[in-house]
Structure to design on (352 residues):
């Protein structure tokens, strides 16, 4: 695992131990916290709504901004209904709690995040997604009249890999399927907008739920569940939703009033990702998907060499604490062309 650096603020450039580094780690893909106009909207929201609103969504005093946010997010994603929670982990936990009561069996993808794992269940992290999906297809043919839950991330940001769920339409039609996709690393990153994959996969089953954290690319300390009105109406009645506090309203104010800022950052991220992909796609020691802002590599010694060049990579053992380190470089919208040029130059020098 790479050296730990302690800093006051983890931006694309950070200062630790008196040295300045370029950071290519973390999950702040759009870099919204480094956009002054977004910070101004956030302060404006705090002045309007206060620092927090700790009351249940079912209390007799409500803030209209929660309904406004959910209706807007639903319209942009193509979902019939959206429910907002204080974190992505809570959103995933609530979605799984709901599905657990609706289905007879649950099939878990290899890279499913702990937020969407039923207690006592997990996928096989050493199995490929393609192998797992083929296994699901085969198992479906040997069952009849079952209600089956299928749980997966939209994206494996550690490989990286963007998953295709078209195969779900080929499952044996004698069963009913409930699909839960975690869009935590898709919101703000995957696709032509910042609103994730719901619109792309809503045709695979009428029982689709998408959940996820908005705290990564979108920089909102919140989580969401998206789905049909029929499913989300049932979620409304669960104690987890009825008793939990919503996220701080100031962030929702900044989001709703900062859509032009998000679009601009999304455009920058795509441009930065394309620039690096075009420069390194022929370098076989590095893995990168066109359109996804993560570069992975196997050579453990390169993490320290990058650090010597004042570049911080993400590096930690995966999937278990005794496994080999997973080494990644995460691109963001706030990296300048000079930052990327330096990174590319250093990557090319690592092979010499």
């Amino acid at each position: 695992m790479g050296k730990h650096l302690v800093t006051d603020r983890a931006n694309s450039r950070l200062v630790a131990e008196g040295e300045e580094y370029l950071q290519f780690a973390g999950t702040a893909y759009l870099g919204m916290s480094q956009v002054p106009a977004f910070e101004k909207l956030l302060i404006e929201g705090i002045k309007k709504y206060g620092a927090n609103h700790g009351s249940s969504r079912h209390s007799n005093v409500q803030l209209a901004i929660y309904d406004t946010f959910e209706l807007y997010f639903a319209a942009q994603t193509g979902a019939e209904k959206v429910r907002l929670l204080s974190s992505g982990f809570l959103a995933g936990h609530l979605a799984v709690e709901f599905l657990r009561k609706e289905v007879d069996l649950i099939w878990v993808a290899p890279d499913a995040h702990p937020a969407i794992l039923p207690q006592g269940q997990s996928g096989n992290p050493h199995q490929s997604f393609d192998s797992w999906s083929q296994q699901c297809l085969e198992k479906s043919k040997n069952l009849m009249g079952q209600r089956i839950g299928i749980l997966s991330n939209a994206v494996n940001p550690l490989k990286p890999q963007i998953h295709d769920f078209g195969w779900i339409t080929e499952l044996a039609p004698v069963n009913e399927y409930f699909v839960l996709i975690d869009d935590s690393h898709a919101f703000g990153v995957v696709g032509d907008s910042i609103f994730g994959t719901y619109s792309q996969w809503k045709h695979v089953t009428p029982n689709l739920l998408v959940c996820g954290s908005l705290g990564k690319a979108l920089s909102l300390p919140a989580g969401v569940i998206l789905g049909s009105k029929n499913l989300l109406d049932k979620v409304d009645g669960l104690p987890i939703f009825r008793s939990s506090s919503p996220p701080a309203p100031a962030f929702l104010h900044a989001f709703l009033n900062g859509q032009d800022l998000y679009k601009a950052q999304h455009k920058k991220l795509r441009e930065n990702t394309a620039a690096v992909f075009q420069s390194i796609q022929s370098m076989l020691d590095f893995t990168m998907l066109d359109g996804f802002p993560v570069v992975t590599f196997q050579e453990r010694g390169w993490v320290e060499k990058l650090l010597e060049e004042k570049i911080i990579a993400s590096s930690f053992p995966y999937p278990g604490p005794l496994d080999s380190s997973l080494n990644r470089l995460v691109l963001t919208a706030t990296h300048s062309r000079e930052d990327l040029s330096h990174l590319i130059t250093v990557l090319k020098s690592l092979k010499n």
